[in-house]
Amino acid sequence: MKLRSRLLLNVFLLLSVLAVLMPFIWMLTVSFSPSADPFKRVALLIPTSFSLEGYKQVLEQAPIARWFMNSVLLTSVLTGGQLILGVLAAYAFARYQFRGREALFFFVLCTMMVPPQAIMLPVYLVVNSFDWVNSYKGVIIPHIASAYAIFVLRQFFMAIPRELEEASRVDGCHSVQTLYHIYLRASGPALFGVGLIQFVNNWNDYYWPFLILSDEMKMTLPVAIVHFRNDSYIEWVPTMAAATLSVLPVIGIYTLAQRYFTESSLQSGIK
Amino acid sequence: MKKRISLNIMLIAALMWLLVGCGQGNTHSSNSEPASASPAGTEAASDTGDKTADAIEIKFMHVFGGSQGEAIQEMVDRYNASQDKVIVKAEQAQGFYDGLLEKLQTLAVSKQLPEVAIGSYANGEFMSTRMPIRPLQTFIDKEGYSTADYTAEMLKLGQDAEGHQYALPFLVSTPLIYVNLDHFEKAGIPVVEQPKSWEQVRDWAQQLAASESGRGGIYFQMDFDTWMFQTLLETKGGSYASIKDQDVQFNDAAGKEVLRYWLDMMQKDKSIPKMNGTQAAEAFQSGNLSMLVATTGNLANLSKNSSFNLGIMLLPTWEGGQTTRRLPAGGAGLYVFQGNDEKEAAAWDFVKYATSPESSALLAEKMGYMTVRDSAREELMADYLKANPMAAATYKQAQDIVPWFNWPGEAGTRATRILLDHIQGSFAGDMSGDEALDKAAAEIEKILGW
Amino acid sequence: MRRIPWQPYLYLSPVLVLYAIFFVFPLFFSLYISFMEWDLLLDKKQFVGLSNYQEVLSNPLFWKVIRNTLLYMALTVPPSAALGLVYALAIERAGKLRSMYRVLFFVPVVISVSVAGLVFSLMFSPQKGLFNEWLGLFGIGEQAWLQDTKLAMFALAIVGVWMSFGYNVVLYISGLKQLNNEVKEAAAIDGASGWQSFRHMTFPLLMPVHMFVWTITLLHSLQIFATVHIMTLGGPNNSTNVWAFFIWQEAFQFFNTGTASAAATILFVIVLGLTVIQVRWMQKRTQWV
Fold first, then answer.
1. Which chains reach chain B with 3 or more Cβ–Cβ distances below 8 angstroms?
2. Partners of residue B159 on adjacent β-strands
3. If exposure means fewest CB atoms within 10 Å of the residue's CB, which of B325, C84, C223, C280 is most exposed?
4. pTM score, two decimals?
């Protein structure tokens, strides 16, 4: 391609990136503005004065550390569970011939496609009958079987040469050992990728924790950042500061491991 | 090799997640120590350390965040420090009164209701007939508790038809007109305590909006409810409905005139900007809106953040003046939910404290709502009200307080929503005002089975 | 003779048990509730036949909600898919900065919807918002994005596209990578121009990716809930009230379990039909299943 058209293309892409990232820049701008006048800016974006007031207010007024810990805990347990159950199920689907395999796999795919809102009321009532409303169990257990994890891990497992497995059988490994020695070892990066994606998705989950957790001290970050909304008056500076804080871990994980995200996302369509 | 390492780290991490995670999960869910939400809260938490182990813990659910939430927390902290039998944990439900009602319904189903909650006066009917509350009259009778010091009009806000107290008034508000005095001065409009009429307010709004481009003249805050509509409608002599005759009446002449009044200001005068209540509050604070008709409860927030001379005017009547001003009481009462005797007694004790003259004065001063106690107004707050004429303004119209209209039965939230949706639809230009009210009335009659 | 293996059933059992409790049972439970008048607060239940369905279908709001949902899908899916393809093509030709672009375009995908909802509601604010300032630069007056019944859905669609198209970019890039050599060779033989080879080679060859992108984006936009809940609560005048929000509102705001379940059942049947067709198609056309 000609140098000049490539340059133009890059200018176009850089501008697009700027537009795509604009909400973040804007969030940061507002979060570092003084509360009294959050919207006085130079050239649309740069605050006229810089202030940490918003962050101070969040840290003082809101149990944000607690929410953060809640999110870490809940997301970790949920993701871990999804991976473990996902590995087991994917292994069964990928390596065994058994009656009902196709039908069951089809069924697993269907669970991905049904809008969660279509069954949110009955699931809520089920959770309620177990007395899990307002507890982490109620948030975690209904979602621990993840069709996405099963689906992607099955892809990876199927790509592993059968000979390896047969060799290990010959070595006298039983089924669980085979799973560990052959499949898990070979698909480490895939597991890691799926885990990361699930972690981020679980971290970001909004509607289910919002429905189940009513205790302010149990809330997760995405639900709790709406905390600063009160009657007819939203305090934007601390709200944006809280939003920034809640995004940081995700951005951190993403920057460190972005390769896994884009690659593993390709394996399936569920965000 | 690299792969192997990352896999092992992953597995170990997964195991840690499970093991460590579960342990923490238990401590989290069984943790009974009240967590601190503010610096004030931390003090309270250390106080509770000294309390006897058998102190009863109760939950108190409200809707306030920001500086209003801090005021509530301060009151709760004071209560916790004042005695050692009960520990109150305050909790904010999101989404204001609607969000609270949703939350309380789901909590009622899961049998996890808090012991005490506030409830909007707009939902009194719902709370008293559909929720498992313990009417406060029970405790009042048992204890011979005197309600004489509660302001009489406000006491009525928590009474059923027989005059039994199902709730006690906690926070009461009236609408006020917040004005940007700088704008008034520049436009040469005299500042008065109370405008002559809503028609005069309209003229001002038009004048103020025209004086600078990008400025709004006036905004009536009605994001969540139809409070403003009721205020203007009843002051005009109209009413929402006659429950006795099963007849919706807000689409009679008075209602249509009120809506036309707003629509004319929006469409002809261009003095009401298109925005929501939050944005209007922001616009007002940054000097882009001259008048804001909103609850007394916003006083604290608005005066804290406004960079200009803030003034307050009382609500006028309509031109002609044959009808009197009627101000539906905004705010919320306190409810106690059914539980065991111990919890109920603790809840009642907290309700008494929360509505005591001292607490009521504290909340009134810090939040901007009205005190519900005569003695607080006349004694505890006398100096404060003298020094803060803006805070005193709302009391000057308090004699006109009337109850907030409640739709009968379980369909109240839906009926309110239908009316609000249609009013907003007419604001957006989807239909005419008359059409909006007629349609809303027809739909409400249908769901009420009238 | 083959032994029937027991292991797969063992490995699948935790997942299947969970699905039975939290997926299959709720589906039937929902169907059951949809024939009942069930007052959860007073715990009174009564069989009412089809009257909940009748109530839902005769509610003008229900039809408005369906129109809104379709409108939202029409406003988000094509732009999201098209932007995905356009940027994938652009990034593939961008040279050294390729991987950086890929990473940055994907950022909105990993952001929580509640943060996006909050930030965008501020950006759409009529007086302070970024969008109006930009429009102001072009001499367009202030718009009340989220307060205008004609613009509110459009505003939500902007957020929806913003959150989803980065994902499509990545999908298309991978599709292009698989094709690139084939297409180049073929094009070199034909002597076709860039546009011609795109139209006749690249675009049709990407068909499996197109299908995948469209399906996923459609399903996501059909399920839109959180942005509505955070940004507009279905308003103004229900102009942004969509299917999922309507069900939530019936169930948890108006507490009408019967009509909520009836509406959910109708939704489920439609989506199930589409899904069966879709999964069948995927089974035939791709190696993924």
1. A, C
2. B165
3. C280
4. 0.85
